[in-house]
Amino acid sequence: MKVEQERIKRAARKGGTTAVAVRGTRRMTSPMMDDVLNRLPPQPTRFAVCAPGRLDVMGGLADYSGSLTVSKTADDHICVAVQRCPEAALSIDLTGSLALDGNPPTVIATCDLRGSDGAWVRAEQWPGEVEAPGTAAVRGVVGAVVEMLRSTDVSQLEGGFSIAVGSTRDGASGIGGDAALVSATLLATAAAADVTLQPPQNVELCQRVLNEWLSLPVGMSDGACVLLGEPNALMQCRGDPFAMPAPLPLPGNLAIAGIDTGSIHDDAKLRYTRVRTASFMGRALIDRIVKHEGADLLQWNGLLARVSVSDYVERFRDRIPTKLKGSEFLERFGETGDPLTRVEPPFVYKIRSRTEHHIYEHARACEFVECLSRAIRNNDEQALHGAGELMYASHWSYGQRCGLGSIATDALVRLIRDNAAQAGVYGAKVSARGCGGVVVVLMRSGEKEMDALSAVMERYQAETGNKPVLLRHSLPGALVSGVERL
């Protein structure tokens, strides 16, 4: 996996750290950190990390297709505190909104972290999830510890780790809680083990744990934002080869906020995975067309984001089936080449619409950054309206092209557009994996605009019965704030 190491190192140095065991210059104070620290004995040395959530502003659904993604750290966060212990075990204590207060810690012998060959266990060798509270969080912590040890060539581990984890909000709310959990665990356990991980390694390892241990087929932007995000700035990422253009600081009179709708579909993860599968089906078909015609297509390298909208419409759109049963696709074309998904034979995939979302979303994300940059540079009100319209278009595409909409997010976006547009609220869209969760809003940050948004949230609650939660503030990424040694 290619990573622009110098770019990421510079971003990390900006926050005062180039390795996880170095204290950052922007300590994140949090009552949650005090809570997790109190769950560990005061001695020996403890290491603590806070990692913020992430608001996917534009492009996030298409990051694995090479799209530009634009994101912002949230104020909700996860704290992880770690200390070495003489027992050869992992003791994992979950608290906060992880809803396991009062339950004993989960204890896992370190010998169970090794496979039959004596090497650190792989994700596929670890026991599958069971229906129990906190199981996914425990699996994320275990995956982060194991991948950290494997990446640093630690063949022998004396003793173990006591790990306490607290969250201000359930990771299912759509703000990147999984990436925050994994990132904070990686940094804190590496510091406790007295090993050094460079920032590019942290980003790569975070994605590996999300993909392989938590079965989340996401790209690298989740981990990059929660690790390296600057407060009150938009983080830009490009996929394969991974690149990070300079962050876009938001001026004081402009805000991007999130609203947790209080509703998310139970099958959100499955729907997201099927959208990815369908987009890789479309990618495979485009690749066959390119190879058959011997066309010199922009060094496309299998990335939908490298297909321009005009090329797609003129050369590919009408040659991609609108829908196809999985068994028929497998019989005619074989697997898609995506290592993180499999085609389900009985399922009917809407290939064309899912494919074109990724192509159009990359174009929208690029135009969004251009509009916002122009608005900030020139105080261009029209450019802000343009950026907002791109957000509305992205929201429509989530629902209509990808089937990742929901009654809750559609209702909130409709209320924002109908009732707050004249009050300095420019645009809104569903965030992250969709199917409910968080809506992201572009707006002026004055009192009038906040009053208008509050009124919309009250109307939304009256219409749906769901209680929305405003996510207004932004915190530094885990590598920017650094590891606390206590």
Number of helices: 14
**Helicity range:** 40-55%
CATH topology of one domain: Ribosomal Protein S5, domain 2
CATH secondary-structure class of one domain: Alpha Beta
- The portion of residues forming beta strands comes to 15-25%
Give the low-pLDDT segments. Answer: 1-26
How would you characterize the overall build of this protein?
There is one protein chain. This protein is globular. It is an alpha+beta fold. It is built from 14 helices and 14 strands. The protein has a domain of 255 residues: Ribosomal Protein S5, domain 2. Strands 1, 2, 3, 4, 5, 6, 7 and 14 form an eight-stranded mixed beta sheet that branches. Strands 11-12-8-13 form a four-stranded antiparallel beta sheet. Strands 9-10 form a two-stranded antiparallel sheet. The N terminus is likely disordered.
Summarize the structure.
The protein is of the alpha+beta class and 486 residues long.
Quick tags:
single chain; 486 residues; alpha+beta; Ribosomal Protein S5, domain 2; 8-stranded mixed beta sheet; 41% helix; globular; disordered N terminus
Give the helices and strands, then pairings.
Elements: H1 5-14, H2 31-38, E1 46-58, E2 69-85, E3 89-96, E4 106-109, H3 135-151, E5 160-167, H4 177-192, H5 199-213, H6 221-228, E6 233-237, E7 248-249, E8 254-264, H7 268-293, H8 309-316, E9 324-325, H9 326-333, E10 348-349, H10 351-378, H11 381-400, H12 407-419, E11 425-430, E12 436-444, H13 447-464, E13 469-471, H14 478-481, E14 484-485
Helix pairs in contact: 3-4, 3-5, 4-5, 4-6, 5-6, 7-10, 10-11, 12-13
